[in-house]
Amino acid sequence: MSVKAKFVCTNVNKQKWGKQDEGSTTVVLKAVTSDSEENKKFWQYTPSGHLEMTIKNEAAEKYFELGEEYYLTFEKADV
Hints:
Layout (H helix, E strand, L loop, with lengths): L1 E14 L8 E8 L5 H9 L4 E6 L2 H6 L5 E7 L4
Antiparallel strand pairs: 1-2, 1-4, 2-3
């Protein structure tokens, strides 16, 4: 089983940690609001949510764009 949610990127913050470190990017995503029919359905079941990630992978850093919407799929990890 998995759980799917829809979030929007509300903040992208690139940071440098000294001269030799390439730095990282912090992205913040929040649950979508009801501005489309699909978002209204997601909002009904997830009216609030917040995800913040610090990323040190150039391809992943470029993937997240301010204002874009993303699906999040949660699955239990095999331990």
